[in-house]
Design a protein that fits this description.
two-stranded parallel ribbon, two-stranded antiparallel ribbon, 4 helices, 4 strands, globular
């Protein structure tokens, strides 16, 4: 991949994750305030997306976010996954109905064991 292609891909991912306003902000640490928790989480997801892995594993990507922010983040992840043809596995605790509807395949766990497996094999999303 050419350097210009890498730069455009990074810019597109920043736009898709809604981080344009934070582009020149330090992440934070020490005495620097830096990014919010939500923005840090989205930066982490952007890095994973840009690594071009076939599987993107997100451990509680909506933790600490309100329903609107959770939907916003997961909707963008779903769109990016579709665009870059990635599989996303996410552990999410009590998603809103709007976030729940974004899932294509679902595995519900109870006490660490599979309770329900629902596959959406018929749809090409």
């Amino acid at each position: 991949m050419l350097k210009s292609e890498k730069k455009e891909r990074a810019e597109a991912t920043i736009r898709e994750m809604g981080l344009q306003d934070a582009r020149d902000t330090r992440i934070g640490g020490g005495s620097a305030k830096g990014l919010s928790g939500d923005q840090k989480r989205r930066v982490s997801m952007c890095i994973e997306i840009l690594m071009c892995l076939k599987l993107l594993f997100l451990d509680e990507p909506t933790m600490g976010l309100d329903n609107a922010a959770s939907y916003h983040v997961m909707n963008r992840i779903a769109k990016l996954a579709h665009h870059y043809q990635r599989m996303v596995m996410a552990s999410i605790y009590q998603p809103s109905s709007e976030v729940f509807e974004l899932f294509h395949n679902l595995c519900l766990l109870s006490s660490g064991k599979q309770s329900i497996l629902a596959l959406d094999e018929g749809q090409n999303r």
